Each structure stands twice: as structure tokens, then as C-alpha cells.
From TrEMBL:
Signal sequence, renumbered to the chain: none
Name assigned to this protein: SDR family oxidoreductase
Pfam families assigned: adh_short_C2
The keyword Lipid metabolism appears for this protein: no
Originating species: Tropicimonas omnivorans
InterPro entries in the record: KR_dom (IPR057326), NAD(P)-bd_dom_sf (IPR036291), SDR_fam (IPR002347)
Length: 271
């Protein structure tokens, strides 16, 4: 599945025939925020191919959400599409409850929804914009995790999306980078809190990837968008992130918690 996002970016690829499912998430019930596009859609399709029932939360793009639904169902499993704003506690509570009502519980939560807005100077970031970053990128992770916990049993997993920027910084994305650093701290602390319950908490830190969020650079600095690349020589594809989420959600990673998988094309960050 590929999709053209912008003329400055290559078409986004979400999953290919080369990825062979092995039943690693057979029968698992998964909820993914921001699952309509980008990395969230890739995670959804890869988990569906591994046998999971997959629910996604999307904010506004119903058309994109339906494409993800179609992709999940094409893998022969059940899909649930939920409209909601992760910045809203009631929406997060309702999304988790919808999954529990539909499928009798929840096994995997993927906190992936994100917001970014580049600014050249800290003085250009308004109070409202700062709070918008916190509301989506950090509050949403908190609200969904808190709502999910009563439904998560031993063997369950939470997989969060942070960013390479949390580890190396980004002068254009001070607000976004700050929230991604908070995601790292949240992941590590919650992993320790939930160890005794047998629930693992880990995160994926993507480098530059072909996703809609990159379009925020359009009009801000088109050269950044046109020249996005990792040291490996190119921008990454969402399909190259999907397997990392499968790994952290499955029992293949049963001895891993509180950790970060860096999928960034060679951006060494020592984190």
C-alpha cells in the first residue's frame, strides 16, 4: 500500500508483500492513536497481518481512516475506527471503552498521535501553540494509558512513539522536541511502575519518515522538506517502522521494557 502525500516527498509505503505475518499477535486486541496515517497506519497494517484485531483513533481525516480500515480488513481481521481528539480526556476514555465493549478487552495500546509546528524562534511560539503540543503529544499519551490500564492484563504491552528529536534536539521544533522528551521520561517511569503487573512499556524513536507531519515544514522552509534524509542517504518509509511496533507488542520482546528502539537510518544519538 503506497500513497502520494506531497510533491516534495516520495510516495509513502505502509506495508509490502515482503512482510510475512507469523501470527505473532494472533487474537490480540490493539488500539492505535493516530492510526489513520503515516507510522500509525503502518503499525496498524503490520499488526493486522500478524493476526490482531486493530482499532484506530483518528482526529479529522475520515477518508484516511477508512483507507486504514480497508487495509486492516484486507488482512482478514477486524477493524474499529474511532473519531476522537486525544487531547480530550473524555474522547480517550470513550475510545478505550469502545474497544473493550467491542472486543471484551485490550491487549496492546500504541500511543502514536502527534502534532508539530516549526518556529524559527522561541519568541514566535504562542501560549496556545505550546499548549497544543503538550495536549496532543503528552496529555493524549497520559489519558489513553490511564484509561487503558484497567483493561490491560499480564502480558499486555504499551508502545509509545517518541522521536529522534528527543535525543538530539531540533532548533526548528523546540515545542515538539520538548514533548518528545517528555514521552521518553513517561515511558521509562511507567515501565517501572507496571513491571510487577507484567505489563511492558517501550517506545519507538523514528528518524525522518515520509508522513503527513513533515508537511508542516512546507512554507516554513521548503528546503528542509525537500532535503529530509537520514545518514543512510534517504528518508525512511512508514513500512520500515511497522515491524518495530510488532516486535515491542509481541512476546518476541518479552524481556524488554522501558527501552527505546531507534529506527532512524543511522542517526547516532547514544540514547
Amino acid at each position: 500500500m503506497a500513497e502520494h502525500i506531497d510533491d516534495m516527498l516520495p510516495p509513502a509505503e505502509y506495508i509490502t508483500d515482503a512482510y510475512k505475518g507469523a501470527g505473532k499477535l494472533e487474537g490480540k486486541r490493539v488500539l492505535i492513536s493516530g492510526g489513520d496515517k503515516g507510522i500509525g497506519r503502518a503499525a496498524a497494517l503490520h499488526m493486522a497481518r500478524e493476526g490482531a484485531k486493530v482499532a484506530i483513533i483518528y482526529h479529522q481525516d475520515a477518508e484516511a481512516a477508512e483507507k486504514t480500515r480497508a487495509g486492516i480488513e484486507a488482512e482478514g481481521t477486524e477493524a474499529l475506527v474511532i473519531q476522537g481528539d486525544v487531547a480530550s480526556r473524555p474522547d480517550c476514555d470513550a475510545a478505550v471503552q469502545a474497544v473493550a465493549d467491542a472486543w471484551g478487552g485490550l491487549d496492546v495500546l500504541v500511543n502514536n498521535a502527534g502534532f508539530q509546528q516549526p518556529r524559527a524562534s522561541l519568541t514566535e511560539i504562542s501560549d496556545e501553540e505550546w499548549q497544543d503540543h503538550m495536549a496532543v503529544n503528552m496529555n493524549g499519551m497520559f489519558y489513553l494509558s490511564r484509561a487503558a490500564l484497567p483493561h490491560l492484563k499480564e502480558g499486555a504491552a504499551i508502545v509509545n512513539t517518541t522521536s529522534i528529536n528527543a535525543f538530539v534536539g531540533n532548533k526548528h521544533l523546540v515545542a515538539y522536541t520538548t514533548t518528545k522528551g517528555a514521552n521518553v521520561a513517561f515511558t521509562r517511569a511507567l515501565a517501572k511502575q507496571l513491571m510487577d503487573k507484567g505489563i511492558r512499556v517501550n517506545e519507538v524513536a523514528p528518524g525522518p519518515v515520509v508522513t503527513e507531519i513533515q508537511k508542516t515544514f512546507k512554507g516554513y522552509d521548503d528546503d528542509i522538506l525537500k532535503n529530509l534524509a537520514a545518514p543512510i542517504g534517504r528518508i525512511g518509509q512508514p513500512r520500515e517502522l511497522g515491524p518495530a511496533y510488532v516486535f515491542l507488542a509481541s512476546q518476541d520482546s518479552s524481556f524488554i521494557t522501558g527501552q527505546t528502539i531507534h529506527v532512524n537510518g543511522g542517526m547516532i544519538c547514544n540514547g
